[in-house]
Specification:
single chain; 3 strands; globular
Length: 112
């Protein structure tokens, strides 16, 4: 199935990677709207966004995203900037034909 969340629902407030695993194992396509530019004070939100993208990427879930700025400008300074570089790379790859045509991976795992 397909699901639509706004950024605030997914990345603001208490969330764990297990929440994102549940989404990835339930839906083949995830739409995320209103992804903001994240200044350093939004490091926790940036970290949750990294987790979300990691899980979606690993499961080959299709992502449709609307953002305030291009992916490489979403989080440019702060505690998780090096990890966010990988997220930007994954966001770019997730736009490729190869990624879009790849089947979703169902991975039965829980993180502790």
């Amino acid at each position: 199935g397909v699901v639509w969340f706004d950024f605030q629902t997914l990345c603001v407030g208490p969330r764990s990677q297990n929440d994102y695993l549940e989404i990835a194992n339930t839906f083949h396509t995830v739409m995320v709207s209103e992804v903001p530019y994240m200044p350093p004070r939004l490091t926790n939100e940036a970290r949750r966004f990294i987790w979300l993208i990691d899980v979606l990427y690993d499961h080959r879930v299709k992502l449709i995203m609307s953002a305030e700025v291009p992916p490489d400008q979403l989080y440019t300074e702060g505690q998780v900037v090096s990890e966010f570089a990988r997220t930007v790379s994954r966001l770019m790859e997730m736009q490729s034909r190869e990624y879009i045509e790849a089947p979703r991976r169902l991975i039965n795992a829980q993180l502790t």
